[in-house]
Amino acid sequence: MGVARFIVGASGVPYEKATHFVSVTLLTLLLALVYGHKAAASKFGSYRQLLPAVGLLAVTMYGFIILAILVEHLSGIHGFFHSGTTRAVASRFPSVQAPAQMSVGLHITAQLIAMPITTALLWGIASLGFRFSKRQS
After folding, report:
1. Residue 94 class from Cβ within 10 Å (0-12 exposed, 13-18 middle, 19+ buried)?
2. Is residue 137 part of a domain?
3. Within a domain: residue 28?
């Protein structure tokens, strides 16, 4: 999904049209729910065992995002990860500093700060999948 998002962004499709169909974040949230369900269905363990799985999901997602930010910056490609969100964010939320107005280092730092918060959110979603799995005894 990340590669698809990168290609769609670099091809010039407007951010507002593409982000609902090629969202790395939405896919990761869905995967966390599925992992929670599958863990319960397979009698994998308890809620604590979900944390490494969602941690790997978060590291994979943010690793790809950071890589895409660097590729866009170093190559001059205007995609969705660093430069492409400027128009969409600035038009909807003028008071928010859009990523392209940030330095690349600050943008990557912000992603790294968001990673543990997202990991906790993913663990909560996976826990819901685990809790409400019909196969759990």
Report:
1. exposed
2. no
3. yes
27-82 residue pLDDT tens? 888 899 999 999 888 888 888 889 999 999 999 999 998 998 888 888 877 777 76
Domain with 81 in it: 2-131
DSSP 18-79: HTTTS-HHHHHHHHHHHHHHHHHHTT---GGGHHHHHHHHHHHHHHHHHHHHHHHHHH----
Nearby residues of 1 by Cβ (< 8 Å), 6 or more positions away: 22, 23, 24, 27
For 92, how many CA atoms within 13 A lie in the half-sphere containing its CB? 8
Number of domains in the chain: 1
d(CA 113, CA 107): 10
- Verdict on whether the full-model pTM lies above 0.90: no
Spatial neighbors of 124 by CB under 8 A, at least 6 apart, are none
CA 35, CA 77: separation in Å to the nearest integer?
34
Query: Among all chains, which residue has been given the structure tokens 């969409």?
Result: 88
